[in-house]
Design goal:
- The longest helix is centred in the middle third of the chain and has 32 residues.
- By secondary structure, this protein is mainly alpha-helical.
């Protein structure tokens, strides 16, 4: 699965080969069962249909949300850590390797026409534009999280970081930014192109929806996620790069993990 995500940045559609291999291995290892392949196929077909017929956007939204919320049968996502207390004072933390949510992100990037950086020059230009926003977003989000009593300053190191980082970057951040920025924000920005405040509306909508997706964590988490989502959206807007939104998302999460109580004060 991790290789399937990385293969999105390799030309010649190798992502499709990697994804099909991942699905086959998923069935072999019983991570996928029954109708999982049908949901994957329907999700991909929905994204392809949207490219041909814009009103099919609702199909993409419904399919992505259902996969992201683990609401479709056939996916037995592997458990990586359960009720893990990373450091004294931290709330218990559970981590899954979410196959269904990641599939949704891969299909959106691969089939919805999300532009990707293909050159070193492109990466440098995008990073230069996004860097100030990324830094300010990390500072603002963590200061507010501390002020709200959601986290406290607690620098730490654990080897679990490497497992967490791989899953968070390549699964969580890629799939969430593919949907909220690469699809929601990009399509709203395109639909409102030329209208006053069009870009601001697109940024605001993607941020609010991103915050709402974190409702399970309570109102403080929703508010903090909305503010963080606005930062990701601005980084995406300035750089015109989904990679910078993914990087902004991951660097905030990594700062939270390494320097503050994670996922919250216990």
């Amino acid at each position: 699965m991790l290789l399937a995500v990385l293969s999105l940045w390799i030309p010649r559609r190798l992502w499709a080969v990697a994804l099909l291999t991942t699905v086959a291995l998923g069935y072999w290892s019983h991570v996928l069962q029954g109708a999982a392949a049908i949901w994957i196929g329907l999700s991909g077909a929905g994204v392809w249909l949207y490219r041909q017929f814009k009103p099919a956007a609702l199909v993409v939204v419904v399919g992505t949300v259902l996969l992201g919320m683990h609401a479709l049968p056939g996916f037995d996502n592997p458990l990586i850590a359960k009720d893990l207390v990373i450091a004294p004072g931290d709330a218990p933390y559970t981590l899954y390797f979410n196959f269904d949510k990641t599939i949704a992100g891969i299909l959106l990037i691969a089939l919805a026409g999300v532009p990707l950086l293909r050159s070193g020059t492109g990466w440098r230009q995008a990073a230069r534009l996004a860097a100030p926003v990324i830094v300010l977003n990390v500072i603002a989000a963590m200061l507010l999280s501390t002020a709200f009593g959601y986290v406290s300053f607690q620098p730490k190191w654990t080897s679990f970081f490497w497992s967490w980082a791989a899953v968070n970057l390549l699964l969580t951040c890629v799939s969430e930014e593919a949907f909220f920025r690469g699809f929601i924000q990009r399509e709203l920005d395109s639909a409102l192109s030329g209208r006053r405040w069009g870009s601001a509306i697109a940024i605001g909508c993607s941020a609010v929806l991103f915050g709402a997706a974190h409702f399970a964590g309570g109102w403080r988490y929703v508010l903090l996620a909305t503010i963080a989502g606005a930062g990701y959206a601005i980084a995406y807007r300035r750089s015109r790069s989904i990679e910078m939104a993914i990087l902004a998302h991951f660097l905030l999460n990594a700062t939270h993990f390494l320097f503050f109580t994670y996922p919250a004060i216990g």
